[in-house]
């Protein structure tokens, strides 16, 4: 089943998925077979369906395929795949660094933590986006930030004025790009020894790995999606 959320994004629901796993969507455009990997954002306990966040680009082949869908169409997926498995209270604190749709694998993990009253893991989530309007899942993230063990921050690369933001976002938003200085500050402010999760473009992931090492985290103290 298919449903559209906004002009630049879409979601699909068909099948089952587990926390932090991903599936591969297969399609055909002008006779050319294409496939892309997407991570479910639905709750880990969802039965009989999963939802994914898909960013549609003007000239992307998969984007063209997705835009051709109508409600009720069938999509073909393979999976789930993935090798990160979360267990309650496995880490003292999770430091989630996400760029754009790299937010997707963080969502089910975060929701798994807040849905479990016995899971006392602290979470610091940092979402990197171009603009405030471009932040995905604002309502969900605001709701999650109300939990005692969750805090959220945002880094906007194409804005520079806190006065233009809603009051509730001003203190937790930085401007520019997520870089080594802020990473050190975030690691230092963690309430417990953090384990970092990183997801975004290849360049973002590579940069964050370097920054985490410079901030004092060992290579076995972070996971790159």
Automatic annotation (TrEMBL):
For FAD, which residues are the binding ones? 36, 38, 53, 55, 62-63
UniProt entry tagged with the keyword Cell membrane: no
What cofactors does this protein use?
FAD
Stated name of the protein? NADH-cytochrome b5 reductase
Q: Name the encoding gene, please.
A: LOC111143393
Write down the species: Enhydra lutris kenyoni (northern sea otter)
Q: Which residues form the signal peptide?
A: none
Q: Which UniProt keywords apply?
A: FAD, Flavoprotein, NAD, Oxidoreductase
- What family name appears in the similarity comment? Belongs to the flavoprotein pyridine nucleotide cytochrome reductase family.
Superkingdom assignment = Eukaryota
């Amino acid at each position: 089943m298919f449903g559209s959320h906004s002009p630049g994004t879409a979601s699909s629901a068909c099948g089952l998925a587990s926390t932090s796993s991903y599936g591969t969507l297969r399609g055909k455009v002008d006779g050319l077979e294409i496939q892309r990997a997407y991570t479910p954002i639905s709750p880990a306990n969802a039965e009989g369906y999963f939802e994914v966040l898909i960013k549609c680009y003007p000239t992307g082949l998969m984007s063209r395929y997705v835009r051709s869908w109508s409600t009720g169409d069938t999509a073909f997926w393979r999976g789930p795949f993935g090798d990160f498995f979360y267990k309650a209270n496995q880490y003292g604190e999770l430091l989630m660094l996400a760029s754009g749709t790299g937010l997707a694998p963080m969502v089910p993990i975060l929701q798994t933590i807040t849905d479990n009253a016995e899971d006392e893991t602290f979470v610091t989530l940092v979402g990197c986006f171009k603009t405030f309007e471009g932040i995905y899942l604002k309502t969900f993230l605001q709701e999650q930030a109300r939990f005692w063990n969750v805090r959220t921050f945002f880094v906007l690369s194409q804005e520079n004025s806190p006065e233009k933001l809603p009051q509730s976002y001003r203190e937790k938003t930085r401007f520019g790009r997520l870089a080594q200085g802020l990473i050190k500050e975030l690691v230092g402010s963690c309430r417990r020894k953090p384990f970092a999760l990183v997801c975004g473009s290849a360049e973002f992931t590579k940069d964050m790995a370097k920054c985490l090492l410079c901030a004092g985290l060992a290579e076995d103290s972070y996971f790159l999606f």
